[in-house]
Amino acid sequence: MSVAEIIDARTVEDHVMALASHGAFGETGVWRTVYSPEWSAAQDLVASWCAELGLEVSRDAVGNIWGRLEGTEGGPSIVAGSHVDSQTPGGRYDGALGVVAAVLAVQALKERYGPPRRTMEVVSLCEEESSRFRARFWGSRAIVGGIEPHEPDALFDDSGISIAEAMRSVGLDPARIPEAARADIDSFLELHIEQGPILEDAGLPVGLVRAITGLRHTSIELVGRSDHAGARPMASRLDPMAGAAEVISGAVGDALRMGPPAVTTIGKMAVEPNLTSTVPDRVTFTIDARHPDPEPLALLYRSHQTLISSVAERRGLEANTRILLDFPPCVCDPDLVRLLEAAAGELGIPAMRMHSGAGHDSQQMAARSKVGMVFVRSIGGRSHTPAEYTTADDAAKGIQVLATTMHELAY
Amino acid sequence: MSVAEIIDARTVEDHVMALASHGAFGETGVWRTVYSPEWSAAQDLVASWCAELGLEVSRDAVGNIWGRLEGTEGGPSIVAGSHVDSQTPGGRYDGALGVVAAVLAVQALKERYGPPRRTMEVVSLCEEESSRFRARFWGSRAIVGGIEPHEPDALFDDSGISIAEAMRSVGLDPARIPEAARADIDSFLELHIEQGPILEDAGLPVGLVRAITGLRHTSIELVGRSDHAGARPMASRLDPMAGAAEVISGAVGDALRMGPPAVTTIGKMAVEPNLTSTVPDRVTFTIDARHPDPEPLALLYRSHQTLISSVAERRGLEANTRILLDFPPCVCDPDLVRLLEAAAGELGIPAMRMHSGAGHDSQQMAARSKVGMVFVRSIGGRSHTPAEYTTADDAAKGIQVLATTMHELAY
Lengths: 411, 411
Description:
Helices cover 36% and strands 24% of the residues of chain A. Chain A contains twelve helices and 18 strands. The first copy, chain A, has helices at residues 3-6, 9-20, 37-52, 96-113, 138-143, 163-169, 198-202, 240-258, 294-315, 334-347, 361-365, 392-410; strands at 24-25, 29-30, 56-59, 65-69, 77-83, 120-125, 185-193, 206-212, 214-223, 227-228, 263-265, 269-272, 278-279, 282-291, 318-327, 330-331, 351-356, 370-376. In chain A, helix 2 (9-20) packs across helix 4, helix 2 packs across helix 12 and helix 10 (334-347) crosses helix 12. The radius of gyration of chain A is 23 Å and the shape is globular. The first copy, chain A, starts with a helix and ends with a helix. The mean pLDDT of chain A is 97. At the A-B interface, strand 10, helix 8, strand 11, strand 13 and strand 14 of A face strand 10, helix 8, strand 11, strand 13 and strand 14 of B.
């Protein structure tokens, strides 16, 4: 049997469902936050799969599970994987499918070709979603040595537990986090659901990611003057709500005019004092702006900033902006993209190059390795919800592309 | 001494400060909600002032304080007053100044002219602000028989106390509310701070209200579809935040284009799920729209409704609108407006006709009486804040106009 034959839809489905049983939420959802009992059970299951495959299994200092198949030539590893934690609730596929993919790809390669020339590893990353702690990319940041020493005692979940305490509750010592760092990873390959509608709209099962979007989260506070809704004429108001509406329409318009893949989202707002009959004195909202290419990204940011300044100045409002998050675009390794593309071509799987509009562990891994990503079609473009769905057929096709590429790299 | 000489700034100031000592909040504020101990103390003070004047003092079934000076000819009364409750916190003048005005006007008239031909009454209304219960105009509604039988047990404050319980705590029996109704009030005259900047901008101490604004509060819920902020392209979003921004800008624009005195305010908003990286699926906000004249008011409402429908339809959003509050404009009695104007002219007090953009007890009283209102200048147009301020000089001028008009009516 060929690698593509070994990786069939039924096997994929069985693995996804087995993993989804840990932290199952409702009919189709998953609620599996880092260092919870459900999370531990899921990581144990991945470890047992790796052990059954005859891989050398280890758990690193933050709880990432590694399964290692030593290469005959040694040297830096070819690693595949993704994360095992979920949104609250999330679906069965976000992260988990990439872990399943890595296991099945290595399994198929080992079964078909035996020991590789270069070391291959499976990794099930502990945390990506920031759904319990604001620990974004905890697993991959540990691997690239990107966790700051103060963080374990500074990040808390909603019940006041620090991530350090949560680590200790599953037998991990926060003081040892630096030991999770790796400098011997050549390439990191991540399969992930697309989480958007682009593949579905194009009628394709698989996408090959050329770049992961850069993104900036900005908090904008517009301060005006609270006034009586009846007694203060329109002309002399300092109305931050009218200003916010103008900025929001303008920022959404900036992204629309720039065209795809530029996106700008205003998802969060707070109004003070938030009373029907009172002109607000303060409106605070966020702008999430993204583009995978540095130049248009910088242009998008500038457009938004200019807009905020000019609206505030014209309306006599005080504007305070604060950058909450700022990730530069991450370019996937062009050679890996070409290899992935060639693999899809060989397998006769229709695929397209695309960007990722969402952030991924690969962004972090790129600090120390070449990275490549395979996307599989999301039905309805849904994600971060129990309604998230990818067919086992599409998933199998993506895994076949992943395995074929790993074969090219490791054998 | 003339009535105008009797009503001097010093006397006004003393009365305002005495009333403000009950429920004093910070340096210049007042926190005096209906049926609280501070409120009872304030009403007791008004009752004692009335008693000292030799008026016949009574407390009606909802706790309004009345001071009656019987006219030699009897017949329906000429009543002056306002409310004694405050915002949380509010200032010293909103409501309270109208109560002080009524006391000082009747005092000056009695002192200067003795017993009136027609009965004059002072009223200190129990509740207008809805700052403890959503009981808007509780005092004046009781007087016009406008409180529904279910209300006393259906209105609760933030600590879960019903207005019926609160009434009982100050010795009032909710079952007797209908007894507060009066059918023998000929004219109700209310002096109030303007709460806006129109008089200040015009450089005038006093305004004569020709109409109280009509107003409608509408809650608008726009429902779209939640999507990942990075993975969902702009063109296929159903973004209720972008829709809300467009409606808000458009509604504010409707009022601006119509020109003064049209006003439209968006003061309240809630976003779901309210996350930075997620296109919201639901944005709910309020529109407060006002105009004192029925035709432009109807036009303003129609413009807003058309806007909401067209934005929702074009953007594929579901729009659910709900009217929360709907007060028609209240026209002050033209004869009373002319009398007030003539009084200001006689006294040499510069004044202008204007509308009230805020709601007042007079709106309710108009159901059974002629109503007239005197506005006095608000410094900076501020109100519903401890920063609210009206000079004792301006207040005295307004009270002189009130007293002169009452003389015309009652003697």
